[in-house]
Design brief:
223 residues; DNA-binding; 64% helix; DNA binding; GntR_C; Arc Repressor Mutant, subunit A; three-stranded antiparallel β-sheet; Four Helix Bundle (Hemerythrin (Met), subunit A)
């Protein structure tokens, strides 16, 4: 649930921002109920800004309003994850190639910082991965790629999926792959950065789909 009291001077926006980030970070899982009373108590605000925040999140598709039963975080629909990874394969390799051509020092420094906590457990690993891929879009210098990437990571690429499907070995492998991608970008090698990003996403897609293990070995459906 949301944590931390909010500044009363901008309560509606802050409540909205806190809940939205909790959902995007995967801390509020799909289909988990949003209890206005509990959120109000934890944030030290009235129910009105909480209700307004939930309505805004529902308009974005992040929350579902239930008739006479309150609200919950939007459910993961069948095919959402596969569709998200298909889109990522079109967007993120291009972002890596553009970032290598642009090589903005400030943006690359931000990318480098996302690598630091990548091996500190599932929650930190997921947060680092999300931060890396969002910063990668920013480093491309293309605002449309930024919007597309944010929309994808605002969907069903959540912590709960990583916690259920990924292993500590996979988190470590992801972190290493991020480093290799960034090394290629910093070297200005757009072709390699693009290829490594595509391989990285494809491997993660296969792991999450249960087609391979963390080391890339095929998993038999008959086992």
């Amino acid at each position: 649930m949301a944590k931390g009291r909010v500044d009363i001077t901008s309560v509606p926006d802050r409540v909205y921002a806190i809940l939205r980030e909790q959902i995007l970070a995967g801390e509020l899982e799909p289909e988990s109920r949003l209890h206005q009373e509990g959120i109000s108590a934890e944030l030290g605000v009235s129910r009105t800004p909480v209700r307004e925040a939930i309505a805004r999140l529902a308009a974005e598709g992040l929350v579902e309003l239930l008739a006479n039963r309150g609200a919950r975080v939007a459910a993961v629909r069948s095919g959402d994850m596969a569709a998200a990874y298909e889109a990522r394969l079109g967007i993120e390799p291009l972002a890596a190639r553009l970032a290598a051509a642009r090589r903005d020092a400030a943006e690359l420094a931000k990318l480098r910082k996302t690598l630091t906590p990548a091996r500190r457990g599932p929650k930190a690993a997921y947060a680092a991965s999300r931060a890396f891929h969002l910063e990668l879009a920013v480093a491309s210098g293309n605002p449309f790629l930024v919007d597309f990437s944010e929309a994808l990571w605002a969907g069903r690429l959540g912590l709960h999926v990583y916690a259920q499907q990924m292993t500590p070995e996979q988190f470590a492998k992801d972190a290493l792959e991020h480093e290799h991608i960034l090394d290629a970008i910093e070297a200005g090698d757009g072709a390699t950065a693009e290829r490594l990003t595509r391989e990285h996403i494809t491997h993660a897609q296969d792991v999450l789909a249960g087609r391979v293990d963390a080391d890339g070995r095929a998993l038999s459906d008959a086992a």
